[in-house]
Amino acid sequence: MARHQIELYIHIPFCMKKCYYCDFLSGVFDVRMQKAYVNALCTQIRFESASLKDCEIISIYIGGGTPSWLDAEDMATIMNTVYDSFHVTGDAEISIECNPGTLTADKLSTYRSVGIDRISIGLQSANNDELKELGRVHDYNRFLYTYDAVRKAGFDNVNVDIMTGLPYQTIEKLNHTLSSVALLRPEHISAYSLIIEEGTPFYQKYKFDDVKQRAGMETEALPTEEMAYKLYRHTIDFLTSKGYQRYEISNYAKKGFACRHNIGYWKRTPYLGVGLGAASLINNCRSSNHTDIYKYIDIAEKLQRQEFIDYDYCSPFYDSFEKLSRQDAMEEFMFLGLRQIEGIYRSDFYDMFGCDIEGVYGGVLTALKNKGMIGMSEGRIYMTDIGMDVSNQVLPYFLFDN
Amino acid sequence: MDQSKIRNFCIVAHIDHGKSTLADRIIQMTGTLTDREMQAQVLDNMDLERERGITIKSQAVRIIYKADDGQEYIFNLIDTPGHVDFNYEVSRSLAACDGAILVVDAAQGIEAQTLANVYLALDHNLDVIPVINKIDLPSAEPDRVIAEIEDVIGLEASDAPLISAKTGLNCHDVLEAIVHKLPAPTGDPKAPLQALIFDSLYDPYKGVIVFFRVKEGTIKVGDSVKMMATGATFDIVEVGYFGAGQFFPCNELEAGMVGYMTASIKNVRDTRVGDTITHVSNPALEALPGYKKVNPMVYCGMYPADGAKYPDLRDALEKLQLNDAALQFEPETSIALGFGFRCGFLGLLHLEIIQERLEREYNLDLVTTAPGVVYRVYKTDGTMIELTNPSNLPDPSEIDYMEEPIVDAEIMVTSEYIGAIMDLCQERRGQYISMEYMEETRALIKYTLPLNEIIYDFFDALKSRSRGYASFDYEMKGYMKSDLVKLDILINKEEVDALSFIVFSGTAYERGRKMCEKLKEEIPRHLFEIPIQAAVGSKVIARETVKAMRKDVLAKCYGGDISRKKKLLEKQKEGKKRMRQVGNVEIPQTAFMSVLKLDED
């Protein structure tokens, strides 16, 4: 019997220090807490596997936080639990997020030995003043050292994260980062625009600038909208000229190195998320785990002691659960799929929903095409460059009136 | 019922002088309501009335009072609105009364609306007894106010009750004054029926509930009655009188009584306020003199935010009109806003109240265009049209000249703000008439002002420049020839009909410039540049530009967290829903009211 293919996301919510712009679920915790968490995480992996016996894992992504901040043995424990609980395909892509300053040769060799074959390094900028502004723990040299160690350890699929739209960023500064990174020829580059998120130190510092930026007004530290657009555009042009193919709004790869795990998200491949606050898409249901680390660990410990736990959804780790309607699924298919540069295929829509896309979105597609926001060719529907630039304005059209 | 034991009266006052509080106190003291049932301001039973502390609708209540002479009296208290916009409501209520209590604030004394309301009451031949309220305030000066009432109005006030409606102090004196100083109704219960409609209410179960005062004859359940003006006939299902916020059915109402009737009346137009009810057999020879007819002075367009709600808006307006004779509306269409109504109001407060009632009581989301007055356009062919919608202004080549409505304004103000208020009136194209000191510290300023200049925010400006010490009343004077132009707004080169307005040519440039600035703030950025222009005829007099949006992309989208992404998109979509599409520009609905806010800075 053919197994259902799923992806696995593992969340490691620990950092050496929280960056000023970061609103991901992560924090600074001591080793004792880390051990307790790893134990809880493994408990969830085992628990969830029981109801996914007929699935095989085609990719794993270990994200954070800073997964590389964990001890090598903890990572080995986690991965071995995965192998014990699930069938992982032989060619599975297994990525881990790392930050410069947290990696050692020892850790890297452990990663290799447990099957991790893709390393993602958070650089963000090659300019030390910008790294300091962002609250990163490393400088550029430390990144180079890490990158070298990763290559020496034999990893041949490496991603580097960079950011655009930073305070006071100029084309020259961005260009320095871009060319410094391109010089090293990583297989993959992710280039994100800075987003000022509520609840972060950056929000306190830049919330007014952020509003001004979005209103198209003059700003103080953040780039104006016009400038942010230029930075974003320059990134696309520069990386494309260096042989990187942009396959999603913020992701670039050498041929054959697009991140399969990520693509799965845009294509709505089912995935299981384990760990604090991690989200899942299983059987057309979206769920997410508890976000309180004490609660999360407590649930796992109760499970281990086989104590009674009262829970509402199909897993005690779930904090929220939503069964997607057919319309929800269609909406997602569109607004996630169109983030990919190649767009979506009409045939995929038909296969998934059993009806023609024109019958559902015909009017919207025509209107957006007339506005120059989307293009169509050979059964494919994709956003134009302009459409992509303002995708937040375009994608809402695919939501149904409720 | 012995007519001599009935008193039909109302309470008149300047806004905030404590009219509703006194009404509540009277109701409470006569035991109509127990203390526990007493909710502040019983008669103001619309949410809106309580919140704003004003009375919009007339309300009536029947009270049994056992007087000091040992006799029981029936009081029919009819509450009247205090704001200048609602003079027509006051006049309707007054016609149903035989007397009036004039409430004057012991600290503030006579205000503009005190005068207006007293004169209205005297016009209706009502006996007026003054009452000095709020004597518990530290700033109360009852002696000064008594002197003022005698000097300015000419009413005997030396024995006026000095009360505090809030604490109940001396309120008993008011009840006794009602018994002894106000007249009992007259009228023959056996004469042919004449009952005057002074208000009505639509009830989904009973149909129209008609409020009336029986002047002559007797009205009974089962009677066949005729509306003398509309000619409609009905068989009466129920008659009764008013409790506090309730209806009490009874068998009949005789001459002198105030009450209500229902007769399964479905068509709101059949029972016009001011009409006379009589019997089909043995009808009265003539109708009672109708109420003073009041014409709308301010017009604006009202459109449902959701075009599909047009029939709902029409139904809601029809129902409101039943209770509100002064509300007028007729269908109109706008290129920008679709199908809606051009509605006529007594003033801006009236407009706001109708707008809020439509939104709250009928759950309608409205787009309202800038209010305007009724202009007279004299055409070269010798005809004249009354213009209520700027879009209908004829081509300038067909216009000989135009006239705009003007009002006689009376502003009462303490002496230190006289200069500021006169400046304000000058700015608003006012013509100075006179100024007289009522006493050493207060003066009555008279101006002639274009109505157009006072409908937007004059009242607010007046209050802010006088720190709340000025009070204002106005009365239509007539029309005056004026140099007026139509100011058009072009958004992305397309004229937006709903944003056009008529303006004095001397202020057109200033208004146009401010309008463009305001709209620039209101209109969100689009994917293309949007010019906003103000034009008079074909001449552009002001311009602003909404810059194009270049980048709006959620770069970081952590794979698993799809719900967050969707929420963001939903928010975007919600925002778009509140927009009006004009050409390919989306205009927020609030922008159509921008002209109201031009003077806010």
Overall description:
The complex is a heterodimer of chains A (402) and B (601). Chain A has 402 residues and is an alpha/beta fold. Chain A has helices at residues 31-50, 72-85, 105-113, 128-134, 140-152, 171-184, 201-215, 225-241, 260-267, 293-304, 326-337, 346-353, 357-370, 385-389, 391-394, and strands at 4-12, 55-64, 87-98, 118-124, 158-164, 188-193, 245-248, 251-253, 271-274, 279-282, 285-289, 318-323, 344-345, 374-377, 380-383. The mean pLDDT of chain A is 94. Chain B is 24% helix and 34% strand. Chain B is built from 13 helices and 32 strands. In chain B, the strands form seven sheets. In chain B, strands 10-9-15-6-7-14-11-12 form an eight-stranded antiparallel beta sheet. In chain B, strands 20, 21, 22, 23, 24 and 25 form a six-stranded antiparallel beta sheet that branches. A five-stranded mixed beta sheet of chain B has the order 2-3-1-4-5, with helices on both faces. At the A-B interface, strand 6, helix 8, helix 9, strand 10 and helix 11 of A face helix 13 of B.
State the gist of this model.
The complex is a heterodimer of chains A (402) and B (601). By secondary structure, chain A is an alpha/beta fold.
